[in-house]
Amino acid sequence: NQIVRKQRMTRTVTDSRSTTMTRTMARQRKDRAIPSTDVMMMALLVLVLASCLVPRSALAFCHPCSSRSFHAVGYAKSSMFGPAFVRGGGSSSNTPSSSQLHVAASSSPSTQQEQKMTEENLSLLSDRGRAAVERLIAFDQDNGVAQAHVYGDWPPAGQEDEGKQQLAEQLADLDESYPGGLASYLSKAKVLLQESADGVNPFSDFEARVPEGEALSYEDDSTTDDNNNNMSLSEAEALGESVLEGVVFCLVAGGLGERLGYSGIKLELETNLCTNACFLETYIEYILALQQMVQSKDKEDVKLPLVIMTSGDTDASTRQLLKDNDNFGMDDDQIVIVTQDKVAALKDGSAGLALKEDDRWTLQTKPHGHGDVHHLLHREGLVEKWVLEEKRSHLVFLQDTNALVINSIIPTLGVSVKKGFHMNSICIPRLAGEAAGAITRLEHKTDPEKSLVINVEYNQLDPLLQTQAEGGDVADETTGYSPFPGNANNLVLELDAYHQTLKGEDQGVVLEFVNPKYKDPVARTDFKKPTRLECMMQDIPKLFQKEMASNVNIGFTMFDRWYTFSPAKNALDAGVESVEKGSTAPGTMSSAESDYYVQNQRKLKWAGVDIEQSDQQEVVAGIPVTAGPRLALGSSFAVTQEQLKQRIQNGGRITQRSSLVVDGNVVLDNLQLDGALVIKAVGPDVSIVAKDLTVENEGWTLEEVKADDDDVEETVAIRGYTMNKKATQEYIVTEPGSYIIGSDGVLKKQGS
Q1: Do 62 and 50 form a contact (C-beta atoms < 8 A)?
Q2: What pTM was computed for the model?
Q3: 551 three-class SS
Q4: Which terminus of the chain is more solvent-facing, meaning fewer CB atoms within 10 Å of its CB: N or C?
């Protein structure tokens, strides 16, 4: 992963042999009349011999037909942002002193053309901008000259000067934001693009095996073997709850909602229309609920931190969302925001930087991927603080639009503790051949130290398995699923091992990949559109393996899909198209909302409530969704099975057309609901018992909106419907105390 740069010292070399030869030729010219053509040939011979004896980087010579001086560009010792350059025959310097820099437009001597970067143009630039341009030129001279279109053929000073300055500043930004500088980025890109063109198989030295892991079921809370080697969900939750005070959360939120058909940030989208809580609010309320669980055990000072990784696209809006909502209840010192940078786009197989088609002075940039999060946490000193100062134990990574993941965090922590996992991936059952990554143990054929457990994309897994006895990615005869668990891309890391890994030479920069779309799949040189190097959060095992070798312990915890995985990622029209093709997981806002209600239906049914359900879904705006009931259970109501058993007493019944919102310290004792009910105990000092409460009203209904209605807001259009809250029975209590709601529906404070 490291780019090793050649470090050259530039010097002027005077060789006695070349000096003697020159003097001899001078005496011969004086003593004998030598034809001018012979003189020219001899002079050229001297230059050829001198070029063999003197390093190219130090060579300064006179053109044989002119007194005009030309200088070759050499290299000084490499800096942290890439190699500096030095004029031939001079001393090492970061900036040139000549009035002109000459750069070759072609590496072939026969077609070489000289382009000039004049001192007048360089003087227009800021110090950092000039240094960035000079570093790019210097790097390019030793690496095939792929960037001449960026710095060559600049018009004279006085023409388009603002554009030149803008380009130089952008180069400086890209240089400073990437570890190792732009030179490191381009060096990696050239290697990866060549491997892509050559069709290199990254798994040719490995065999795929199913890794060690745990499968937990919400509705079947029992161990899966007679020796009790595996855990039940309740056991995993109890063990996970015991380490909550040492947990840190990191939310990866660098993307906009464009793929969903929404122009804003995804974190502000509503998870459901019953509560209208956005994704960020949902995650924060969950973390605060866990914090309250810890504080209730005589640890009132404990706070659970949250780091949010934003991008240039999402940073300002994310900060504003937090400000407008008072951090959704979190203290300011609990939240840290780190911002990732974009990387340069590449236009061809030579890793040429891509300029905007309509702007010669602006480079195209693209997102680098959520793998940046590891380096950012290290760079900001956060992991070191958590480990050395705060003695925290685990870090949980969350994705931005999968609200169901909060169900699985505590039990995954428990599995990590019991099995000693340094990294634990939250997984779901995966159909054979399904277009989803799979957690796989890659066993190296000759060196066990290079074996690792990591996500392998489906289009790489099947070809790999075809070379083995399995004959491809086939289903297990017993379960009907692939034996390789599907990656939900939510991670739990043990912080000591993570800290050790980030301190290694890579500093959290995960190995990158490139995925160009070629115009000609045979030639594999030119792209349909610019590409870039990418990195993924889930590729951190490569660094774990590098730093800890065979000592690293990586596994997975698998849950039912309904319980932990239903991300919102696709626009409504794309979802409708996938449904028409037979998909049962369209990944729209509406399907994610429906699955949110379904998981709560199953939880309450498990707890003993009679839930009236239909096996048939209703189609709204082209997407099949649950016909009801629509249930929203807040995190402070219950996050574990044990809590839910305490909150639900004596069953009760909820009809299919009903809607329920419940949050806080609320006990539902024999609730009879046929309509809409909202009941919230706000704050840790408020408790409510609803005993034998019967609710009947008109309730809430979904109403489809017209797809071609231009007046419909984006947040509505991406679902295709609104919720008409016709009638609601509501209890929201903020005053501390214990309250009871009887069969008459009257709220009474006990002891008053």
Answers
A1: no
A2: 0.82
A3: helix
A4: C
